[in-house]
Amino acid sequence: VQLQASGGGLVQPGGSLRLSCAASGIFFNYYEMNWYRQAPGAQRELVAGISSGGSPTYADSVKGRFTISRDNAKNMAYLQMNSLKPEDTAIYYCHVRRNGFNYWGQGTQVTVSS
């Protein structure tokens, strides 16, 4: 299983970014896909998840600002992040759990700063 995350960068408060996660080595359609983030000195936290059927869940801190989606035909998951805040600064990881194992992408840095 390989997960490749991309799309991070430096953005001003109030700005937007779209993260992408390319998955390979799994039958993508079967699995829930997740986005986690880890800020400096903090634990990794679940930001959003999307079920195989497309049902999303969100952490309270990002509800109404972030949207998770997936394209099963392309084996891709996305995280659209709007109204970004400095506290959203973190490394963002895509994640899938398969057969009891956790798989992580390499992470993409998101920095929200003026």
Largest sheet: 7 strands, mixed
- Our count of helices gives 0
Radius of gyration: 13 Å
As a percent range, the share of strand residues is: over 45%
Helix share, percent:
under 10%
Q: Mean pLDDT, nearest integer? A: 96
How would you spell out the order of helices and strands? Answer: EEEEEEEEEEE
Secondary structure class reads mainly beta
Count of extended strands: 11
Principal-axes geometry comes out as globular
Question: Can you walk me through this structure?
Answer:
- By secondary structure, this protein is mainly β.
- It has no helices and eleven strands.
- The chain has strands spanning 2-6, 9-11, 17-24, 33-38, 45-50, 56-58, 66-71, 76-81, 90-98, 101-104, 108-112.
- Strands 2, 4, 5, 6, 9, 10 and 11 form a seven-stranded mixed β-sheet that branches. Strands 1-3-8-7 form a four-stranded antiparallel β-sheet, with no helix packed on it.
- Strand 9 (90-98) and strand 10 form a beta hairpin.
- The mean pLDDT is 96.
Descriptive labels:
114 residues; mainly beta; seven-stranded mixed β-sheet; four-stranded antiparallel β-sheet; 11 strands
Summed up, what is this model?
The protein is mainly β. The chain has strands at residues 2-6, 9-11, 17-24, 33-38, 45-50, 56-58, 66-71, 76-81, 90-98, 101-104, 108-112.
How does the SSE layout of this entry go?
Elements lengths: L1 E5 L2 E3 L5 E8 L8 E6 L6 E6 L5 E3 L7 E6 L4 E6 L8 E9 L2 E4 L3 E5 L2
